[in-house]
Protein: Acid phosphatase
Amino acid sequence: MSAYGHQMEREYSAQSLSSTGGSEMGSRYTMETGIYMSSFAATVFISGIVTAGVSLLALLIALAVMLQSCENTNSGALQIYKDIDSYSYCKSYALHAELNSLDVDFFPAICKDVAVRYINEGQYMRDLNMTVGIAENFFSRERPLNDSRDIVLMDADDFFTSENLHSHLSMRRINKDAFHDSSRVKNMFAVKLYLKLQAGGWPLILISRKPETLRDATTEHLASVGCGGWSSLIMRMDNETQMDSQQHFSKQRTALQKEGFQIIATISSQMDAVRGPCLGERVFKLPTPMFNYKTEDYVGSTNL
Structure:
């Protein structure tokens, strides 16, 4: 090969090396400045982002639900506290109204709704059941002695429902149905206690506010509800029809004690029957609805 040919070969080889080196440098540069990713890797990456987003959304929803639940719980607790406060507030008014024979107009407006709920939601029945249970517990430890001179006095009018009595007008203005329901419930528990005492051998004397002219009808009604076998039924005499009912009960108890009877207990749902002298060893006051009817309203009635 001539000298010229060797020179051309060297130049060609140099160009080839130069071209190869440039290609490697160019490829390296591309890899450093760009991101190459296969379709599988891209799918995995996108799926991860979606999963993270869904998890975050679920977390936010869970937090929102928890916050709403806490809010509802707090709201319910506040409502319960409000109901308890209203009930206690109105019970205090009811107690003073009963002690002083006050009219329904004495009560704050909020108590009219509370009084109806007291009956409809079953609290009145629970209070009656508790009081009767206390009385039954006392008599379970006692036995009648003294040759039948140990007696228990019961309010005869507690065995009558509001359909038999003239209920107070102001009570009917509140809720007539609720009042009638409460009267039936009281009648049921009064009869239950009567039968329990009778089964225990206690002589039972019944005192009523109604006049003597209604004796036959009263006796018939007592028998119809299962309250027979009493020792005595005391009614108002003609000269007692205008007497205050508390004075009437006190007079009858005093007379019984003077006759040698030992009053073991006095039982009534009305305040007039559990105040005054000669009440005996125990007094059991059956609860009444917050708005109580006035017993004086049916004293002169000719119907049951």
